[in-house]
Design brief:
The complex is a heterotrimer. Chain A is an all-alpha fold. Helices cover 73% and strands 2% of the residues of chain A. Chain A has twelve helices and two strands. The longest helix of chain A is centred in the N-terminal third of the chain and has 31 residues. Chain B is 36% helix and 27% strand. Chain B has ten helices and ten strands. The longest helix of chain B has 16 residues. The mean pLDDT of chain B is 90. By secondary structure, chain C is mostly helical. Chain C contains 13 helices and no strands. In chain C, helix 3 runs parallel beside helix 5, helix 3 packs across helix 11 and helix 11 runs parallel beside helix 13. The N and C termini of chain C lie far apart (43 Å). The chains are: A mainly alpha, B alpha/beta, C mainly alpha. At the A-B interface, helix 6 and helix 7 of A face helix 2 and helix 3 of B.
Amino acid sequence: MLTDILQLLIYGVILGSVIALGAIGVSLIFGILRFAHFAHGDLMTAGAYFALFFMTATGASIWLAFPFAVLAAIAVALAFDRIVYRRLRRTRPVILLIASIGVAFILRNAVLAVWGPDITVYESGIKPPIRFAGLRIKEDQLAIIIGAVVLVVLLSLFLQRTRMGKAMRAMADDPDLARITGIDTDRVILWTWVIGAGLAAAGGVFLALDTRLQPTLGWDILLAIFAATILGGIGKPYGAIVGAMVVGISAELGAGLPGVFGADWSLTAYKPAITFALMIAMLLWRPQGLIGGRT
Amino acid sequence: MTLLMAEDLRGGYGGADILNGTTLRVGEGEIVVIVGPNGAGKSTAMKALVGLVTLRGGRITFGGEDVTGLRADQLAARRLCYVPQEKNVFPSLTVQENLEMGAFLRHDDFSARMDQIFELFPVLKERRKQAAGTMSGGQRQMVAIGRALMLEPRLLLLDEPTAGLSPKFTEMIFAKIVEINATGVAVLMVEQNARDALAIAHRGYVLVLGQNRFEDSGPALAANPEVAHMFLGG
Amino acid sequence: MLELVGTSLVYLLDPFVLAFAGIYAIMALGLNVQWGYTGQFNIGVAGFFAAGAYTSAILTTAAADNHLGGFALPIIVGLAGAVVVSGLLALLIGLITIRLREDYLAIASIGLAEIIRLTLKNEDWLSNGTRGVFAIPHPFQGMDASSRNLAFFLLVAAVLIVLYLLLERARRAPWGRVLRALRERETAAQAAGKNVDRFRLEAFVLGSAVMGLGGGLYAHFAGFISPEVFEPMFGTFIIWVMLIVGGAGNGKGAILGAFLIWWLYTFTTGLITLAPVKYATQLGALRVMLIGAVLIAILLWRPDGLLPESRDVGGEKKRKE
């Protein structure tokens, strides 16, 4: 039974890693650009499909396609910022939210139009999982966890050690003071999209690798991403990681525990509900998040 | 030598005007204080200088250049630095990082400057790695002023620097302002603590209902019975 | 080719199309009470839509062993039930979320709608799961197809007009003015007392009850419902686009937006059927992209919508132009 629970924990960490890559971006965008980016899930989808495109066009492996997917997603995000969000900078956050819903429609359906609704995979064939101590983990899943850790470390170095990283943290703290101080807010916004979209693309590729490719890939976990962001505190990228792990692990545990304890029913279909209940609880009890971001 | 000249300022937030023709002048190297009853428009006047309030009339020149309508970051580039009353530090950044952000517009090596600021505020040097949000009000104020000083401003704008501080910290902040001024930085300051502020000021303005009411040297204003009767002390 | 397009255009006035547009207009009116009157951003519209539809279906269908039912009550009871259930659901949800900032409420409401949809999808005993509920009675069952559609459209139109008038009355009444004050100057109104929450809750419940009615009408018109009908795109977002394009704040904008967007949608559907079948998915996707682009365009250039709420709300009309 302990092994079963540990196995669920592993799945939780994998899911949490993917959610984290999305939630960090949403948290930064929420903190710096001040709105809930509803197109973030679809940005992840776009990243996943860009990778597919590169692979089918050049025959490269997923790992070579990865940087291409990241760059393409960044370009798309910057384009939408230029065309849509930039003109709405001074409006209420809710207006930007609605605009991002429009962007989400466009992104998701562009993918649908080009690749169709059918489910695809990067590479077919089932690879046997690695087994240890009675637990299983697939090679790809291990790569996901390692990849996520590497990206987070790189992000951390950027935010803590570079001038632009500190400026981003400053602007997430207080955009008005940042402007008064003389920080180049346009450049910070550019880097916010670079990081947000880049991590989203990585998350999308990982998610597609772990599950499969379909046009609703990112949209389906958007709620989990928002839950993680809120749990971690808005504008707090590290909080978002913690929040993502909480969401991922509680979703997997919550769904799988009945089975572990011998029940023949499971809550798998209600995973979003567990996530959602967590988020609502956090919003009502401590809106600044577990770690304490902006409300 | 006049450094800052703001003439006939009119404006406010949205609807009604709070400023009704205020005029302020700061000479090079001076400490100038703006005092007045609540709602007189003191903070509004300062915010109008840095473009945080809608200006419907008036002209502002700094160092001979017309800077009417420029925003705080543009003014910072011209070495006119503003310290707001509240939310004046980045809470999740360390003291040192706050100062680094103050130097964002600089592209040279500013470590010497940072050392100077640590000499001015030794407490900050001890706590350079501490998150600014976890510091006391007085310490935060030092961080805020230090941040603005990183650009080596010619004029420092302080909005109620001693608001909410204990008498001990108030005294210390005023002493530091004098020290800063001694290095050649002009200071324009809005203060609620009128008596103590006027004591260190070269000149002062008393604003009432968005207009100039009195203007004189600091000590003269402090000694003026009408001013004293209005709101000083008691 | 042109005559085929022409036929598409004429088709827009077919009662079948108009009835759907009318139902969506009712949904938009409900959303307008929440967003237009009090600025509450509810992305969970689909949840109330579905709740209303399923309630009415369950109450009025004959006994079936694959879902809750067998009450075979008259349609009017079904509709009343739809209104009540949606209202109660809104009360429950509203009590939980009433204090949330508007963009948090948005996120929370999506989650709630998802839970409702998941429940409907998975609790087969209740709703027959993904297979849906069939044979929902139509109020004009006896007639032939085209008369039926016309009759139903007239019914929907009547409901729509009555609702519009009632809601307009409410908007101009003291109740509505308080709501508007809340929307404009939340902090000042908050200083006036805790009643802020009560008013917003009332508006939220009222709006959701209207959505429930729309859902009930939908069920009886379509005869068949399933969880897929209320998936976010058609259960929520299209209604949002309708309200934003038309203009929130007054009912006219909601109704205009509903008809315009539904016509756009139907017309493009018509165009798609003219094209070769292999392009159907792509064209369908392009259609949604078009809707997204329309939404963004309105936000950028006419953010208050095509028929924005006029400034004079006390009832006096200012003669400007």
